[in-house]
Amino acid sequence: MTLENTIAEIRQSSTGIRLYMNRLRDGLNDLEAALAEIEQSSVLDTPEPMVAEESPITELTLWCDGGLRGPNPGSDLYGSYAYGEIKKTVDFGLTGTNNEAEYMALIAGLLSIAETHNPSTIILTVKIDSDLVRHQVNGEWKVKAEHLRPLRDKARQKLNVFHSWRIHHVPRENVVTMLGH
Q: Is the pLDDT of residue 100 over 50?
């Protein structure tokens, strides 16, 4: 390989890296906008819960799973969650990765719980089949993919309003049985 070929290859690589970083930045902006829209939507609006002053502490389990229709990364991110008598699937209308969908499903479930419950009176157990989300939210693994950091931070912010919380990894089959997909 000649010096000229090496220089041309480096230029191509750095152009590709710049394009990739710009796409990541655009994708992160889209995710942040979608999260803001989810939080402000009437479906997941979070009014002040109607509870008595001396609410008892109760336990609640949130099952959640995110995915996408098509290859990873791909389009049509969606998430499902269930707790109590509630079971719901949300189409996020975004392109992204399966890990983004997992985080968004968790956040959507947490927002939904806040619609009907006072989170400060709930001991929450989250059951999820994503080891990555569980370990990152628990602080056991670093967030290496920068586009996941805002989602991890948002999930932690929403979890920290609960009386207490814990996340457990469950086998995929259990999630499929509970959520129906």
A: yes
